[in-house]
Amino acid sequence: MGDANQSTTMDRSAPKLKRILGLAEEPSGGSTPLTLAGRISPPPMKKRRPSKLPATEGTPEVSLTGAEVQEANIVASSRQIFRSPFQLTRIKDLPNELNRDTVTLKDLLGDPLISECWEFNYLHDIDFLMAAFDEDVRHLVKVHLVHGFWKKDDPNKAKLEKQASQHKNVTLHPAHLPEMFGTHHTKMMILLRHDDTVQIIIHTANLIIRDWTNMTQAVWQSPLLPLLPKLPPPDPPSPQIGTGAKFKLDFLNYLRAYDSNRKYKSFGSIIETLTKHDFSSIRGALIGSVPGRHGPDIPTQWGWPALKGSLKSVPVTSQPDGESSIAIQISSIATLGPTDKWLRDTLFPALGGNKKGVDFKIVFPTTDEIRKSLDGYASGGSIHTKTQSAQQKKQLEYLRPMFCHWGNDSAEGKELGEGVAVKEVGRKRAAPHIKTYVRFGEREGERIDWALVTSANLSKQAWGEARGNSGEVRIASYELGVLVWPGLYAEDAVMKASFLQDTVADKGEGSGSVVSLRIPYNLPLQHYAKHEVPWVATADHNEPDWKGQIWQHR
To answer: Quick one: where's region Disordered (predicted)?
Structure first.
């Protein structure tokens, strides 16, 4: 990956940072900090009562536990409002008012009741991970770290082993990757607790400091899952998509994939433990990818067939031609081919785009947006596409009409139109490592049909490639995400975009339920101008970023 020359550092003046963020010199304050010094005792295990929707002004900032995230609902007038199933991570260099309802790694791992942690990721900093646990128990928590550096001569494997040797309670589990160009890209944690509950956390961040500092990331937390009764009712043979039973079936099959065709079985104990827990409180469909060649007649589908199969159960808003849009927001675009065949014949139909009137948009930052981001060019080391070769240039040409800005405030981008109000989310200068796929029922209106947070970028390795007409799909990488839609919460529910907080700013109109969805980018989306190009980390960038640095690819 490239590296920026450190001509200047973060000692630039505060006023310059505020200008980059588009903030006033003295931002309005008075809000309660997200985290408090010292350890916070876990809340008592009891069901929360619905509370009245608080006013937007002066709302105290809190970090919700997994149990609260999905169980909590808020009653305003005659409407039932559910918090967003996805949360954003806290951004270090943004003010409190732009960090409302966000979470940190310590929020997720700092509970002293955690007894065991299975951590799955692509990049790992073990010291950073261990520091997130409660200081009184971090040396006692059994940590299992699942990574993709399985080859004996891989320097990343040696680095991990050296770090792990400093922690007696850390065990490494390499994931075998039989397919060329495959990676262990899943970002997930399984937490076992002393109160006999477990929690699953699926997110978009590598386990390194940079990803949890000034990069936009998303987190999905399951409720705390209790033990099943000693004689639980049998699961239905074909559980319905979106139910906890189906999520559990697919999740256990995902874990079993690590042990398939291997002499050394690492995952038997965690699978056995999870089998004993009740997943019925989960609302969402698991969308995973595992390496290999997969036929159509398997209990759990992977890659794009998993997404396509799940979306068949999701009703979508019927709109005139061109009124619905699907926003694909990713941090990496692989080589897809000189034509758009894979997109048009495979991925777009899986997303439900074979129906007339769906407008596809790809949200990806330009060089200028990386240059202006909080970390400047340094944040671009985690964001990838290529445009140098002849085939990559052809790919750029068919993607260009779909490209939209991340920050949506480019002076060179297409005009949004006279009188169009921009909905601000406070993340335009926090470069995106998040990956979201969202279907808007009204273009980029506030009504949403479904949303997916995942580790999967725009690539054949992640989503899979069909092998002829046999129905077989070839996948190279491990990926994991969660799909949600309003019908999971109530029969009459609608899903609406929420901005700057995890609940919609509802005015109490109507009687149906509302599911909030935290949006990471400003709306409406702004298309690239004809001359604009996406950020390319493998190119040199000699115009200094806002911190005075240039980018020289090595």
So the answer is: 1-59
Q: How many DSSP H helices and E strands does the chain contain? A: 13, 24
Query: Looking at 185, 203, 294, 384, which residue is catalytic?
Result: 185
Instruction: With beta carbons less than 8 A apart as the criterion, state whether 393 and 386 touch.
Output: no
**553 is known as an active-site residue:** no
Q: Which two tokens stand for residue 531?
A: 């001359």
**435 annotated as ligand-binding:** yes
CA nearest to 189, candidates 129, 243, 246, 131: 129
Spell out the per-residue pLDDT of the chain, length 554, in tens: 444 443 334 444 455 555 555 554 433 333 333 333 333 344 444 443 333 333 333 333 444 454 454 444 444 445 799 999 999 999 999 999 999 999 999 999 999 999 999 999 999 999 999 999 999 999 999 999 999 998 888 999 999 999 999 999 999 999 999 998 999 999 999 999 999 999 999 999 999 999 999 999 999 999 999 999 987 667 667 899 999 999 999 999 999 999 986 766 789 999 999 999 999 999 999 999 999 999 999 999 999 999 999 999 999 986 666 578 999 999 999 999 999 999 999 999 999 866 667 899 999 999 999 999 999 999 999 999 999 899 999 999 999 999 999 998 888 878 777 778 899 999 999 999 999 999 998 766 779 999 999 999 999 999 999 987 788 999 999 999 999 999 999 998 999 999 999 999 876 566 789 999 999 999 999 999 999 999 999 999 999 999 999 999 87
Q: Kindly provide the residue ranges of all beta strands, DSSP E only, lying in 89-138, ordered along the sequence.
A: 114-120
CA 310, 315, 317, 319 torsion-angle sign: positive
**Region class of 320: left (phi > 0), else alpha (psi between -120 and 50), else beta:** beta
Three-state DSSP string of 445-489: CCEEEEEEEECCCECHHHHCEEECCCCEEEECCEEEEEEECHHHC
Beta bridge partners of 481: 287, 454
Helix (H, G, I), strand (E, B), or coil: what is residue 496?
strand
Taking the C-alpha atoms of 390, 394, 399 and 401 in order, what is their torsion angle to the nearest 10 degrees? 120
Is 147 tagged catalytic? no
Q: Which of 184, 405, 433, 541 is catalytic?
A: 433
Q: In whole angstroms, what is the distance from residue 207 CA to residue 125 CA?
A: 6
Residue type for 100, please? R
Total-model pTM: 0.87
SS3 33: coil
Q: How far apart are CA 51 and CA 161, in angstroms?
A: 48
